[in-house]
Amino acid sequence: MGCQEEALIQKVCSLYEQISSLESLKPSKDVNMLFTQLVLTCIPPSPIDVTKLCKRVQEIRSKLIKLCGEAEGLLECHFSAILGLYENPLDHLDIFPYYSNYLKLSLLEFNILTQHCTQYVPSKIAFVGSGPLPLTSIVLATNHLTKATFHNYDIDPLANSMAVRLVSSDSDLSKRMFFHTNDIMDVTTALKDYEVVFLAALVGMNKEDKVRAIDHLAKYMAPGALLMLRSAHGARAFLYPVVDACDLRGFEMLSVFHPTDDVINSVVIARKYPMPTRSIEQGLGPIILPNKCSEIQAFNPFNNGNLMEDLAIEEQLS
């Protein structure tokens, strides 16, 4: 491991110690400063492979991801409550400090989605883990999928009530956005209704829970439906869980894109196998070829030429 990676790990561990000693993770000057430092430390592209770190650093990473998730949830609650005070909350979304990131990420996800939805425009979408500030659903519904209905699932009734407040005054979105208070592991037949399912980065904060959620979606989603997930790459894996191709049992991995700008999450898209040859209990779907378990090279979703070459190669391998 090079000097840069060593310095990065030391910096991340130091920030973890400071963050974990905070009395609260609610937005404050100290919380904002420390998490800003952490994000700025992890954003630059890095060759670091978090799976090869020592056990102590692996444990710190797991704890840090949970702290990041908790802080992100509290930040969204804070700003959802502020937005809820406005007569038309959706006119003021830009007060959320990371709103521009959501605009970029949603555009990226829409472009990737349309590359794999060439025969139809999705009309019924589920977002699992939508939270109190469901910006992805709102931005996609407003800017990109303007006729689709969005079914947002969250386990927290307070998060859903806050989210409903944001869209209730909008005559269009209030008719197209629905909120369900459910643990996704309890949702079964309803999942067959969706052409696309988004799985939020913070659903499944560790590998086991993430894979359990993916397995559940593989069991109940409609054959051929698309699954969009958020992952992380390089040092950004200190902030969010990583989804590997081999975690997607029951799905065909279509592509993964690793942003190098201030959009932190990688975007993964996969398709539910049309005809599983095994049950979930037996190991989920057709046997995946070894090459499907290796990392698929990142492609530029704005460059159709490269994408078509990637798809042609994948078709030959399938």
Q: Care to give the gist of this entry?
A:
One of its GO terms (biological process) is nicotianamine biosynthetic process. The protein has 318 residues and is of the alpha/beta class. Helix content is 42%, strand content 13%.
Written description of the protein model:
With 318 residues, the protein is α/β, with parallel strands linked by helices. The chain folds into 2 domains: 3-95; 99-317, 3-Layer(aba) Sandwich (Rossmann fold), CATH 3.40.50.150. The chain is built from 9 helices and 7 strands. The chain has helices at residues 3-20, 29-42, 55-83, 99-116, 135-144, 157-167, 173-176, 207-220, 304-317; strands at residues 124-128, 149-154, 177-181, 196-199, 226-231, 251-257, 266-272. A 7-stranded mixed beta sheet has the order 3-2-1-4-5-7-6. A hairpin with an 8-residue loop joins strand 6 and strand 7 (266-272). Helix 1 (3-20) runs antiparallel to helix 2, helix 1 crosses helix 3 (55-83) and helix 4 (99-116) packs across helix 5 (135-144). The radius of gyration is 19 Å and the shape is globular. The chain starts with a helix and ends with a helix. The model is unreliable at 284-318 (pLDDT under 50). One of its GO terms (molecular function) is nicotianamine synthase activity. Pfam families: NAS (PF03059). This is Nicotianamine synthase.
